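USER:
Try writing one entry.

ASSISTANT:
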Amino acid sequence: MNADPALPEARRTDLRRGGIRLAVWSWGRADRPPLVCVHGWGDTGASFAFMAAHLADSFHVIAPDQRGFGDSAWAPEGYWFPDYLADLEAVLTHFAPATPIALVGHSMGGNVAGLYAGVRPERVSHLVLLEGFGMPTTRPEQAPGRYRRWLDELHADEALRDFESADALIAHLRKLAPQSPASVLRTLVTLWARPVEGGRWRLKMDPAHKRVNPILYRREEASACWSETVAPVLLVGARQSDLATRFPRFDVMTEVSTRYRHVRQAWVENAGHMLHWEQPAAVADLVRVFASET
């Protein structure tokens, strides 16, 4: 974990939920206010270390590897979104059983955190969504094709390509986050992948995550959950993000803002979708100030 000497010491705790082992990373003293960070698709909780370097003096930062990612176990029966909510609840029950927590979610993790804050409003004191504002809505007529594709993919051989070297993986990571410092990308190699034979690197990710979800995304249902949130909410976008491309029909931050009672927006400059890698200090400053408010 400490390939970069500036990173704080990380502790790993293994939990079990529904037969799945969850690896959970934490930084800072356990007697400080809990701040739980939920990572996005393909990422790992361990990569919040770059933000934790700026937060661990004020918070007990806690970041699980979601099932099938990082050092958490793979789910043999596949991946279903409600399980991510139950896994998050297991983490909260272990680390903060009686204390409302500040909750941060990035991308897919923002979708998990956003739903959870509405379903369990009493458990969340502050909610920060980093480019995690739901997904574009789907249409009923897409259902037959989605189910057919899912059935076909169940019979396909699933694999993720190995990277021939650490440098090849760094080049891939730089495409995801071109403004990340070189030291961050070097550290991410060991967080995202493990070395295998021949000097290659293999991603710590279950290939089954590549399967299409046969259940259509219903934005109206997600919005109904968001509307139950009582915590103040901070929506954080990145100036070089592809938000406008992913949500071409509306201003997604403005649309999401209408679903919350107490909400504000913030933007991070010189960053794209992986803003917690590219500008960890700036994102951490936003989180610290917001999560410290009463």
Observations:
- The chain has eleven helices and ten strands.
- Residues 6 and 53 are 7 Å apart (CA to CA).
